[in-house]
Each structure stands twice: as structure tokens, then as C-alpha cells.
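In this section we walk through a basic example: taking a raw amino acid sequence and producing a predicted 3D structure, encoded as C-alpha cells. The instruction is simple. Fold the sequence below.
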Amino acid sequence: MKIACILLLTVFLLQGCTSKEQGSPAAPTATEKPPVSAPAETPPAAPQPPPATEEPAAPPDQTESPGKESAVYANDIFQQVTVQKTGADTFEVKGQAQVFEAVVSYVVEDGHNELAQGSIQASAGAPAWGDFTRTIHVKKAQPNSTLMLILFETSAKDGSRRMELIIPLPEK
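The resulting C-alpha cell sequence is shown next.
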């Protein structure tokens, strides 16, 4: 008798499980609701920085001479940088920088040797644009060499030069 009850109970259970699968889909009950798909959210677009305008280094005869405007140089962290020769071995550098702790580093070299180096304090640190001005005194080691001013940001991580902006110093 026990075996017959177990067999009947098993048949009823199997019948109940298969009846939902073979018939038409049953309407969901109050406890069984179809999953609601949430509208796909698109992440807000990140603001795109304006494209960097890096101007090529102009030959020395185009940078500054009487009656001509000086060339303007820029890259991602420097903008509106100009260099004017103010004396025999003196140059004035002006521009804006977006650098860590408002420190602009520079080196003047002739292609072989570093003739001058230092740093300039800008009026504001990154992410703001800070103005800077510096008068640099440097004399050529070789009379036929071209002096190059290299502006850069010193990496706080490893001390390397970041985002160099190379500017030929004017002859006249």
C-alpha cells in the first residue's frame, strides 16, 4: 500500500510539472511578474578638451626682428608663449602654463651642451592657466650654434621632463 501511495504521489507531481510546459503560457500571477527591462542608460559624455595647437618651430629669422611680430608657441600645457631678444645675451620669455604647483622648468641648450637652466613660477597651478614671464641671460658657447629654449614640466613621480616645448631663441 505504501508503494502505491508513493507511486501515485510521484505521478501527480510529474503531471503537475509537465502540464505548464506543454500548455499555453500561463498569465503571470501577482507573485510572478515578468522582468521589467530598465531603459538603457548612456553614461554622460566626457567633455572633450579643445584640440591642442602646437605650432612648428619657426626658423630664427621669422621669430623676432624689428617690424615683425614674434612667433607664438603652444602645446598641451603651454600656450601663447613668445620669446623676444632684449639685449646681446638676454631673452624675455612670456606665456601661460598649466603645470603642477605652477612651476615651469626650462633649459637653454645649443644642441650639445646645456648653457642655462632654471625654473619659473607661474601665477597659478594646474588645472588653471597661470601667466609667467622670465628674463634669461645666456651666452653662446660656439658662435655658429643655435640656442634652443626647452620649456617643460618636471614629473613629480620620477623627475623626468614632461610635455617639452622647444623654441629656437631669436638671433636678432
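Looking at the output, two observations stand out. The helical segments are 2-22, 60-63. The CA atoms of residues 109 and 115 lie 5 Å apart. In the next section we compare this with other chains.
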